Every structure is written in structure tokens, then in C-alpha cells.
């Protein structure tokens, strides 16, 4: 089979297209004929050698969609449409950057859809992350205000749409003034230009602070995001778009406002039911939800797709098709 293999830690050029043996089936696992997969920031960190426990060479890819090629357990029939995500995929065992992927049954979700594969490829990890962040971590409710820090990311764009369907008022941030109209067109009620701090601008809109914050930039902006919440407000850090995992200084009784709450979301595939997954795909199919797919690359151009993501050129999801 053809696969995009990360030979060693480094820049996008360490990803090479090679012919390798198709994975051999084993008990508790199924072989998927991969049709498409989304690109994720976590894969950039893995490629750089920043993900602990990863050995090289490695076929990356923490998600994929396709059809079942072989399942010795007969849980899935040959040709059944499935998605797979997380659970060590693309890090501790080979992932979706290939024509075939051997994955554990426990990280697979079945679905049926007439959507094109490039659209389906954008869904699994993006929806799992957004759904878990909004519903399980932030526990959003109708009538609340939500600040999305990192609004032009694929997670930020989908989070805005889902929050609007639940009756929230959404403030989205971007560092690029040229992306303001895209955020408004996506449903944001307000757009704030992020120059490193946004708390003063948010307080002009909501003097008492917002109810919830989805922090996608990460540790670089977390302290400022905490300054945006109202009493009993909640910040969930889900993303690390700022490329920094740790904070040099953090004073809980000072950086977290009194009565403020801070959590993180690091979801896995088992945070998502097959019913919820199918329901979301149906929403996309009938047009209730519009996915923001920025660009589609072929498998041969995975390295270029990594560079495109690293350069922060995308407004929405980057997808690779087989």
C-alpha cells in the first residue's frame, strides 16, 4: 500500500510517500480501506518529536474515514462505512496517512452517508472535540454567552455553529482582520481582533464578563481568557494553537478569578456515541450544519498540507483524500 511516513522528527519534509506492506489483521482490530482523513495540530507536534512515547518511522494520522476491508470479529461487514479516531492512533500504532489502516475495534464508529469522502474526512475528530468541549466540559446552555479564543480554526468554526444552534451568543477571536467577515458569515455575533489580549474588548461587550470561554490558543492566552469570565464563569482549554504546552508562571489564587472555574477537554473516541455521530452527519447532509473545509490535498501532498497548516493559512479544516 501507499503511505505517508514520518521518517524522523523534523519539518514537513520528513514526511515521505513510500510503498509498504499492508497491515496484517489481528484479533480485536479491523482493517479499514481509508478514503479520507482530516489534518490535526496534534500531528504537527508528533511530527516535530514533541509527542511523548512516539517512535519513528511512524505512519501518522489520529483519525480517518473509509470502509471496512476485513474484520475477523464480524462486528462490521466488509464495505461498511466507518470512522476511527484517537486511542493512540498515529502515535503508538500506525494511523490514517495510508491506503489502509489497522485499528482497534474500540476506536471505530459506524455510520451511513451519501456525503463525499472529503466532507466525511473533516468530521470525526473535529466533531468529537467540539461536542465534548461544549457539552461535557463547558455544559453550555441556551441564553449564555460564549467566547471562542481561536475562532478561525476548524474547531472554532464548528463550535460557533453548534453553539448558535443551542441559543448562545458567540464572540469569536482572530488575529487577522481579513478573517473577520468569514467569522461573521459563520454565525459569530461579535468578532474581536486578538492582539495578544482581548479581555478589555470583551468587557466592553460584556462588562460583567462572559459565561463560558472555549480556549483554543492555549497557555499563551489562558490568563487573559480567565479575565473574560463572569462570576462562576467557566474556561475550557481544548487547543494548543499557540504551540506552547506549559506556562512559566501560574498563580491559581490570582490568575483564576474568584468563583471562576477552569477545566480542560482531552476527549477520546469513547466520549462520542455512534448515535450522536450519525446525528451530526445527518445534520451536515441536510444542510443544517455547514462544514468549513478550507483545502483538500491528495495523499501524495501530505507534507505540503502540514506546511499549509503550520503557516496558519487555513480558515477551517484541512482534509486529505486517498
Automatic annotation (TrEMBL):
Tell me which residues make up the Enoyl reductase (ER) domain: 10-320
Name this protein carries in UniProt:
Zinc-binding alcohol dehydrogenase family protein
Q: Which Pfam families match?
A: ADH_N, ADH_zinc_N_2
Q: Does the keyword Membrane apply?
A: no
Give UniProt keywords alphabetically. Answer: NADP, Oxidoreductase
Q: Which SMART domains match?
A: PKS_ER
Q: InterPro entries recorded for this chain?
A: ADH-like_N (IPR013154), ER (IPR020843), GroES-like_sf (IPR011032), NAD(P)-bd_dom_sf (IPR036291)
Amino acid at each position: 500500500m501507499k503511505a505517508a511516513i514520518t521518517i524522523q522528527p523534523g519539518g514537513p519534509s520528513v514526511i515521505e510517500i513510500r510503498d509498504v506492506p499492508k497491515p496484517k489483521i489481528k484479533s480485536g482490530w479491523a482493517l479499514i480501506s481509508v478514503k479520507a482523513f482530516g489534518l490535526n495540530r496534534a500531528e504537527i507536534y508528533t511530527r516535530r518529536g514533541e509527542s511523548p512515547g512516539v517512535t519513528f518511522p511512524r505512519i501518522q494520522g489520529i483519525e480517518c474515514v473509509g470502509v471496512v476491508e476485513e474484520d475477523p470479529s464480524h462486528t462490521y461487514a466488509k464495505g461498511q462505512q466507518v470512522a476511527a479516531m484517537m486511542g493512540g492512533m498515529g502515535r503508538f500504532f500506525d494511523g490514517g496517512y495510508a491506503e489502509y489502516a489497522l485499528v482497534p475495534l474500540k476506536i471505530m464508529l459506524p455510520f451511513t452517508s451519501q456525503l463525499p469522502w472529503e466532507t466525511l474526512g473533516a468530521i470525526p475528530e473535529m466533531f468529537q472535540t467540539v461536542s465534548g468541549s461544549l457539552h461535557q466540559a463547558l455544559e453550555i446552555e441556551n441564553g449564555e454567552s460564549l467566547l471562542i479564543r481561536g475562532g478561525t480554526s476548524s474547531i472554532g468554526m464548528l463550535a460557533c455553529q453548534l453553539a448558535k444552534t443551542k441559543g448562545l451568543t458567540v464572540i469569536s477571536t482572530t488575529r487577522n482582520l481579513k478573517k473577520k467577515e468569514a467569522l461573521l458569515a459563520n454565525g459569530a455575533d461579535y468578532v474581536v481582533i486578538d492582539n495578544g489580549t482581548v479581555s478589555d474588548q470583551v468587557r466592553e461587550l460584556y462588562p460583567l464578563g462572559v459565561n463560558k470561554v472555549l480556549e483554543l490558543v492555549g497557555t499563551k492566552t489562558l490568563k487573559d481568557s480567565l479575565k473574560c469570565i463572569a462570576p462562576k464563569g467557566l474556561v475550557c482549554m481544548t487547543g494548543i494553537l499557540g504551540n506552547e504546552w506549559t506556562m512559566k508562571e501560574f498563580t491559581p489564587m490570582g490568575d483564576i478569578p474568584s468563583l471562576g472555574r477552569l477545566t480542560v477537554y482531552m476527549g477520546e473516541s469513547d466520549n462520542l456515541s455512534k448515535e450522536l455521530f450519525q446525528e451530526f452527519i445527518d445534520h451536515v447532509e441536510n444542510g443544517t450544519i455547514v462544514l468549513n473545509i478550507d483545502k483538500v490535498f491528495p495523499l501524495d501532498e501530505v507534507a505540503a498540507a502540514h506546511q499549509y497548516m503550520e503557516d496558519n493559512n487555513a480558515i477551517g479544516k484541512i482534509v486529505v483524500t486517498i
